Sequence to fold (523 residues):
Amino acid sequence: MNIPKPIINILRGLPRAARSSKPRIRTDALQPWAARHSVHSNSRLSAQAAAVYATEPSIPDVPQSSNPQLAFPCLDNVEERTQKLSRRSMSGPEPSYTSGKHNTFRSHEPILLDWGGVLPRFDIAYETWGALNADKSNAVLLHTGLSASSHAHSTPDNPKPGWWEKFIGPGAPLDTNKYFVICTNVLGGCYGSTGPASLDPTSQQPYATSFPILTMHDMVRAQFRLLDYLSVNKLYASVGCSMGGMQSLAAGVIDSSRVGRIVSVSGCARSHPYSIAMRHTQRQVLMSDPNWANTRGNYYNSLPPHQGMKLAREIATVTYRSGPEWEKRFGRQRADPNRPPALCPDFLIETYLDHAGEKWCLEYDANSLLYVSKAMDLFDLGAQLQTATTERRRQNADKLQTSQTAPHESCSLVLPEKPYEEQDSSENIMASDQPSLAHLDSASEDLVQGMAALRDTPTLVVGVASDILFPAFQQREIAETLRKAGNRVVTHVEFGEDRSLFGHDTFLLDLDGVGGEIKKFLG
Ligand SMILES: CC(=O)SCCNC(=O)CCNC(=O)[C@H](O)C(C)(C)COP(=O)(O)OP(=O)(O)OC[C@H]1O[C@@H](n2cnc3c(N)ncnc32)[C@H](O)[C@@H]1OP(=O)(O)O
Ligand SMILES: N[C@@H](CCO)C(=O)O
Fold:
């Protein structure tokens, strides 16, 4: 079997940890402990191996055990990373998160956010491919998923392949012979756009968790400022996948006259409780990392919450793919069946998740993850929420003059005095003929009203049956809602499990399927 390099690294974790933990060797305790916990057939431990076991921080000086102490290379790796980062933070500030060279648009005008926050000014990182035509009618705005940068495709300034490299280019689904493709890093992100890691112009310190709560609509309004700057009055198309699929719809709802057509892949019209739950667990794990919790997210001059980020990414990865894919890909195989089972990553699926977390934990800012994922939770195109938001924006409009927000005025969670009451009994849900949407009728009417602005906008909606994060019923909901709102130009495509088992990440991996539909739709 060809063992992927990351597995080899994971399996090699033990000796690496031994090197890293040298400074904490308790030489006095070493010999008696080693004698009790020897895992080698020889009674004498090598100095290095003894160091590994003798420096386990959580191992109490207990009486001799019946069986040897297990090793925890996965925890040793975390400690090793902490030590490396500590050395780095002593020699200077954390390096900024970057995906490479990009353009930056700076808005010197403040922006009022939906929940009352104000950014006195903001930057939007962006990249473009293809050429804007004379009447500026061929611009395609590509909205990203949660973790992506503006680097969707390689550029002369940054030849590194982008996250949608094969989907953009001459003859590709986003055909640069025809379209001027623009991709931005979202407001709140960490790849060049203003986000929690950016300096607050008022305090000259990173915003950290004084960054205001933001929404998908805020992100799109910031993008519209960029379009103003580029003199693009109307987009040929607003295209996005995952979180980008929320934004591509939001752009049309905010101003349908600016959006010629919409592509929403694996997106939704409102976040589903199950998706919120899955993001909630990621945020909770991340915020439990002492580096985050002890600073309440003000970690920029100390250690980032890398372990929390790693675990959050592992949970996220579980939501991005599918069980059937992993059945085929990894089955029940262990990384090294010749070793005894371990409590650290052991099965191939475990080492895969571990690697996904390792790779990402220092690549993305933890606070950006919190704010952007919360913005996803808050997404709802229903009329009621839009009306309430419009009213709140009206009430907060004068903040743009003063650029002042009352400190923490809306940040404290107050539980309602009246306890929560079940809205619907589980019996009703079980008894329903159509459990998927039947009990959501009144909410659906709200959505029809909220999306009425899109009644004339040609829209492509793509869903994937194996997606557990944005399940296929959510794309059906978009298409049905648009049709109910009177839209006669909705194309809805659903890929069954026979087509893709890649779950939510299908949009990153299925060029022919997803790319093919987009190409056909854009013409
Ligand atoms: C629109 C958007 O905004 S999304 C932004 C795009 N997101 C990203 O690019 C995030 C980072 N990348 C990813 O999440 C993934 O690489 C994807 C989704 C692009 C592709 O996932 P996969 O199909 O699993 O890719 P692949 O087969 O290359 O495996 C990923 C890595 O896991 C490693 N791997 C595979 N199996 C195992 C295993 N059993 N144990 C350990 N590592 C493993 C691979 O060697 C590879 O390592 P590398 O990335 O260091 O080269
Ligand atoms: N894999 C994608 C899924 C969310 O769009 C990401 O990393 O952002």
Q: What stands out?
A: The first strand starts at residue 103 and ends at 107. The radius of gyration is 25 Å. Residues 4, 6-7, 144-145, 147-148, 163, 241-242, 244, 330, 348, 351-352, 355, 359, 505, 508-509 surround acetyl coenzyme *A (ligand 1) (CB under 6 Å).
